Recover the amino acids of this structure.
């Protein structure tokens, strides 16, 4: 199974919707979306995303088993890793002032899925994900970053580009098309 981690923050919902509109066929992958959310903010990320995909969308608040062709969206005030085919969730510690949820998830995904781990960075602010994409590449996974010129907030993808050499830099719809080709090749091997 492939695991695709998608990190985003400000502007990321629009980018994620544009991405998932292109994923209309079975992929053999599980999709995990890690949006930066405030501790108290009640997110409707998953509810909005459901309108742009035919895959089941799950808001992850507790430990959850991964299934292919499902989308899992991290809930607010949570941190998550993947281990043994399960998303393992905990509350965000009060000392975690800076949200590093993308890095935490990407590092665990890289170790669990190795070359079948794919990290995607979409629109947002900050530099979360930079450490995680390095670990994904260390395990021979794929890293794709949204073209900063196609984002509402370009700091997150630009930081990833500046600190790393992603495999591709594309608009969200093109990221989806590239991943679909990659998954077809990977699933046929």
């Amino acid at each position: 199974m492939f695991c695709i981690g998608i990190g985003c923050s400000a502007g990321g919902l629009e980018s994620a919707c544009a991405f998932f509109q292109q994923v209309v066929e079975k992929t053999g992958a599980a999709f995990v979306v890690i949006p930066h959310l405030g501790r108290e903010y009640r997110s409707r990320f998953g509810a909005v995303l459901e309108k742009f995909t035919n895959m089941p969308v799950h808001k992850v608040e507790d430990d959850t088993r991964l299934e292919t062709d499902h989308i899992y969206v991290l809930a607010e005030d949570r941190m998550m890793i993947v281990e043994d085919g399960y998303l393992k969730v905990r509350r965000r510690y009060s000392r975690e002032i800076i949200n590093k949820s993308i890095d935490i998830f990407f590092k665990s995904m890289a170790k669990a899925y190795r070359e079948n781990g794919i990290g995607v960075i979409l629109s947002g602010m900050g530099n979360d994900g930079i450490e995680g994409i390095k670990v994904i590449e260390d395990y021979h996974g794929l890293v794709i970053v949204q073209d900063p010129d196609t984002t509402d907030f370009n700091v997150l993808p630009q930081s990833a580009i500046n600190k790393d050499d992603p495999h591709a830099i594309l608009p969200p719809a093109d990221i989806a098309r590239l991943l679909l080709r990659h998954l077809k090749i990977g699933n046929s091997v």
In short: The radius of gyration is 15 Å. The chain has a mean pLDDT of 92.
